[in-house]
Amino acid sequence: MAQPPRQRPGAWVPLVLLLLAGPATCAASPADDGAGPGGRGPRGRARGDAGADEAVPRHDSSYGTFAGEFYDLRYLSEEGYPFPTAPPVDPFAKIKVDDCGKTKGCFRYGKPGCNAETCDYFLSYRMIGADVEFELSADTDGWVAVGFSSDKKMGGDDVMACVHDDNGRVRIQHFYNVGQWAKEIQRNPARDEEGVFENNRVTCRFKRPVNVPRDETIVDLHLSWYYLFAWGPAIQGSITRHDIDSPPTSERVVSIYKYEDIFMPSAAYQTFSSPFCLLLIVALTFYLLMGTP
Question: Which residues fall in a compositionally biased region of kind Basic and acidic residues (predicted)?
Answer without folding.
Answer: 46-61
